[in-house]
């Protein structure tokens, strides 16, 4: 039996609607869970400096608030090791449910926290602890959803189906921003006392909804097969570090492309409403518009990667973003709202989506089923930990008046260049059979050789 036969056998275990159901469940779950994660970014830029930190030193308060946003990214490598290990041991579905409840509970509790005026320095300490828990959860979310979706997907549509994980993430960002728009429009006193809490308290509804969707998911057939053959590694990270360490470095470096999202989303919101003096509600609408464009662009870029390859599509996004970030930041500094909407949609919605839409398949295809979730989770979260603090680096580079956007653009473009170089060195995998992913070219899966020997 050939590797292709094994893939056909795996696909035969999935009901006719299974490919779409897995993608839809990953999309909805990611959207609802990342709603929780992203509302923190809006609050960190617009509210938290005045709620959880010393109001007498606004510049320092803003800097520290941006740093708390990055705390979740520092937590993600830790969560990746833990969640990745168990995801490759007990299955993708269980991890997806665990991360859901971790994210929902920590987000709900943020909405219940006392303020700096009420309890002093205890307030930011509690905020950091809960943000850390959010990071632990996010570490396993995208990797488990991407792994499960890829392992359900038809051979020639892996890019398209796995793109729905990121498409859901973008939708979560849209929902969180739409929720924050009326909140941001509240009078100052109402916003800072009770208004900011509403998006966080709504996470209880988000968590319950997402649970009922995810509990009906079928475990990935590829994982079930290795479980049935008792091929699940007791310590997946050992095999990962032994056989896939080069790909781990590639993925960690490629993941720096996420700096475009953190700078273009969180830092730009703080910069535009602070140093530039733009209307915060309008800038939130810029984010919504850009992400609506992304919802359309993501699956289209992913479909293209199924036809011409992952690498060229990713490089269009990474190299293009290195150029377009200057266009976007320049537009914001110009204070021209039409230009800002156009540049934001072109940069964050269209160009960046080329990389953002296909990294779930590109990264997942570098690892075998035995270590896929661990490999994706640990590698991406190392890169994301760096990009999570990009907003803090940007706050420093922008100077005391916060207006040096060129330096911020150079920082972001540099990370895009590193990401591009990493992907250039990778193997093209869009036409590699699923059973042979993560293996050296020309190597047959062990079970294939065993079945051929038995047949002989």
Automatic annotation (TrEMBL):
Family matches, as SUPFAM superfamilies: MFS general substrate transporter (SSF103473)
Record key words, sorted: Cell membrane, Membrane, Transmembrane, Transmembrane helix, Transport
Principal localisation: membrane
Intracellular or extracellular location(s): Cell membrane
Record has NAD as a keyword: no
Membrane topology according to the record: Multi-pass membrane protein
Signal peptide residue numbers: none
Major facilitator superfamily (MFS) profile domain mapped to chain residues: 22-431
Residue ranges crossing the lipid bilayer per the database entry: 22-48, 60-83, 95-116, 122-139, 160-184, 196-213, 251-270, 282-301, 313-331, 337-359, 371-393, 405-426
Name of this chain's protein: MFS transporter
Species this protein is from: Streptomyces prunicolor
Lineage, broadest ranks: Bacteria, Bacillati, Actinomycetota, Actinomycetes, Kitasatosporales
